[in-house]
Amino acid sequence: MADKIKLSSVLNSEQLLPHLARGVIEERVRSAILEGRLPPGTAIRQQELATLYGVSRMPVREALRQLEAQSLLNVELHKGAVVAPLIGEDAADAYDLRVLLESEALRQSIPFLTAQDIAKARSCIQQLENETRHAEIARLNRELHMLLYSKAANQKLLRLIDAELMQEERFLRFHLSSMGLGKLTQDDHTALVDAASAKRVNDAIAVLEHHLNSAAVTIRRYLDSQRPY
């Protein structure tokens, strides 16, 4: 059973410096979840992690709180933190929210994007074409989107989007697994960057909305298929 998995069988034991412990533990556990090495339902015990990394429970607790905020962990009665299901009931709603937030960020940002920004975005797409590791796909996807929004004036808007993109890492692994794919097509990303490069704001927003709405449709179909009738 997933909740009986020993963390030491998945995560390498390592003595961490106290000031680095929270960030390292958060990243190690996140990667293990996204890569499927810690499946849904796995109990993530604070003391086990603290012993594994030779630290107190405080940085472990902080790391787990961050992962809970990213919807990667749930807190359950009598079990504590457990790895969340691949996809949650509110996942489609999250994409509806992203359409609103990211369309506005793209509208603000495109007029100020430089040739260097566009070149970096195209580099992300090129790397995504050849990448099959879920965690790395998620990182590159987040980097690509944030590059395109980076010149938006509203910094709070960018922080909200970044938080939503962190949660999308979960969806990417679900999507690839459910579709039997090793990677996602980059057609939408390419069209998005082309429109941004040409300063065609309305075209870019249309591509982005199609891109995000397609993901929401995939999620809703999956959730509907899991409901008893």
From TrEMBL:
Query: Which SUPFAM superfamilies has this protein been placed in?
Result: GntR ligand-binding domain-like, Winged helix' DNA-binding domain
**Listed name of the protein:** GntR family transcriptional regulator
Any Pfam family matching the protein: GntR
Q: Which organism is it from?
A: Pseudomonas parafulva
InterPro entries assigned to the protein according to its UniProt record, in alphabetical order: GntR_C, TF_FadR/GntR_C, Tscrpt_reg_HTH_GntR, WH-like_DNA-bd_sf, WH_DNA-bd_sf
Gene3D superfamilies found in the cross-reference section: GntR ligand-binding domain-like, Winged helix-like DNA-binding domain superfamily/Winged helix DNA-binding domain
In this chain the HTH gntR-type domain maps to 19-86
Superkingdom assignment: Bacteria
Name the UniProt key words of this record, in alphabetical order. Answer: DNA-binding, Transcription, Transcription regulation
